[in-house]
Specification:
transmembrane transporter activity, 501 residues, transmembrane, globular, transmembrane helix, mainly alpha, antibiotic resistance, membrane
């Protein structure tokens, strides 16, 4: 093992160029979660679909993406990360072309689901390529800092791009815009990215595992979506949650028995990685909730145009970039991850606390500090989270460990949208019932806006609580030291036994 070990640790001379294309592909995937949001009212008008269908345009993507990510991660480990990356890009571009050309609702929903399927191949392949290409601790911190900033800021960039394209071209361009992104990333992947030969997984694919986890996650997310429409006590909502629990428990049992599991339990049983997946999932619930309600608030109450709405989120993106590249990346090799993640989530939650105070007449300058704190906190926390998620994993599991990060983010995002929408809906109804006397003496339009703002502020209070919980989870579960001690061997074949702690 003496010589081969040092060979595997020779860094790829083109790794920094490769990072540009990997980050570009990641930007395209993250962007797609929000770029279509701002365009939805226009698409709805054009294709004539119902209100209830609107959220399915968002959910179809999140469902396909979130439920197939583990499968995508395992495919990357088995089939090669570079090849999976290129196939994902080609498929994503094709699905985007289909969405842009949609002539009816089912074609649009089908295209969104297909984007999710190919995104599920693309995202884990991108992250695991980074994990195997950057072997030096300090360099790795820098690479993950850039990647983390893209992953975090992509959603807000999506809102700006969505606003600009919708306002100046038309909603179809929120789909077509992916094609040039994908073309550049494909060219880069073919010319620049070469995957280290180490750590390919030669086992067969675990089909029962794929079916159980996919149907389990679909039931879980769909359960939250049903709760928003039909209420928590609805029999089909309860049925979906029970089905999700049964399927996911069955998945865990199958994974502990089969020879080549889809998700080796050793990947999540490690308390550090488990802590990252759990706290990140919770944090994303809070973040997605913020995007959703502030977008509705800015466009519906403050009457911002789509483009202005997108730009209003820029200070948050700036905060994220500073948080991940200047704070997270610089401190990551000096302090243990929990001392970056837990305070990061707490700072972000303080931003949400400021935003719970919104009112019908709130000015942008009152919202601004909340956005900046949210960005700084999330950027600082995302940074070590992305790195720790694949830390100490055997190379043959790099793809599936990367997929778990994306899974916790996507499932968190989908659950967050549905859960917080339900909270907002019931808060709005309660407000209308309890303020009936005031309604008689208030201008009806103003009263409706007050009810709306009250419902958003309620949902943001919940997001605040969930973020505090994410901080506590990160602090309690994550106990890894500074990564530099392990960086040397972290990606050598089996160099770090996963359960070493």
């Amino acid at each position: 093992m003496g010589t081969s070990m040092s060979d595997t640790l020779q860094p790829d001379p083109r790794r920094w160029k490769a990072l540009v294309f990997i980050a570009l592909a990641q930007l395209m995937v993250v962007l797609d979660a929000t770029v279509v949001n701002i365009a939805l009212p226009h698409a709805k008008q054009d294709l004539g679909f119902a209100d209830s269908t609107t959220q399915w345009v968002i959910t179809a993507y999140a469902l396909a993406f979130g439920s197939l990510l583990l499968f995508g991660g395992r495919v990357a480990d088995l089939w090669g990360r570079r090849r999976t990356f290129i196939v994902g890009l080609v498929g994503f571009a094709a699905a985007s072309a289909l969405g842009g050309a949609a002539v009816n609702t089912s074609m649009l929903l089908g295209a969104r689901a297909l984007q999710g399927v190919f995104g599920a191949l693309l995202a884990p392949a991108a992250l695991s390529l980074l994990a195997v290409m950057f072997t030096d601790g300090k360099e790795r911190a820098k690479a993950f800092g850039i990647y983390g900033a893209v992953a975090g800021g992509g959603g807000a960039i999506g809102l700006i791009l969505g606003g600009a394209l919708t306002e100046y071209l038309n909603w179809r361009w929120t789909f077509y815009v992916n094609i040039p992104f994908a073309a550049v990333a494909i060219a880069g992947a073919v010319l620049v990215i070469s995957e280290p030969a180490v750590g390919r997984n030669r086992n067969r694919l675990d089909i029962p595992g794929v079916l159980l986890v996919t149907t389990g996650l679909v039931s879980l997310v769909y359960g939250f979506t049903r709760a928003e429409q039909e209420g928590w006590g609805d029999s089909s909502t309860i049925g979906l949650f029970i089905a999700a629990a049964v399927l996911l428990v069955a998945f865990a049992v199958v994974e502990s028995k089969v020879k080549a599991p889809l998700l080796p339990l050793r990947v999540v049983a490690d308390r550090n990685r488990g802590g990252v997946y759990l706290s990140l999932g919770m944090a994303v619930i809070g973040m997605f909730g913020l995007f959703l309600f502030l977008t509705l608030y800015m466009q519906g109450v403050l009457e911002y145009k789509p483009l202005v709405n997108g730009f209003a989120f820029l200070p948050m993106v700036a905060g994220m970039i500073i948080g991940s590249t200047q704070i997270g990346a610089r401190l990551m090799t000096r302090v243990p991850a929990r001392y970056l993640m837990a305070p990061g989530f707490v700072v972000a939650s303080l931003g949400l606390l400021i935003l719970t105070q919104i009112d019908v007449g709130t000015s942008y300058w009152q919202i601004l500090p909340g956005l900046v704190l949210m960005g700084l906190g999330m950027g600082t926390a995302f940074m070590p989270a992305m790195s720790l998620a694949t830390y100490g994993v055997q190379p043959r599991d790099a793809g599936v460990a990367s997929a778990m990060v994306n899974t916790s983010q996507q499932v968190g995002g989908a659950i967050g949208t549905a859960l917080l929408s339900t909270v907002a809906h019931s808060a709005g109804t309660k407000y209308l019932e309890s303020h009936q006397a005031a309604a008689a003496t208030t201008d009806p339009k103003l009263f409706a806006l007050q009810a709306q703002v009250n419902s958003y502020s309620h949902a943001i209070w919940w997001a605040f609580g969930i973020l505090i919980l994410a901080g506590v989870t990160a602090f309690v579960l994550i106990n890894a030291g500074k990564p530099e001690h392990h960086a040397e061997g972290a990606d050598a074949e089996d160099a770090v036994p996963v359960m070493a702690h």
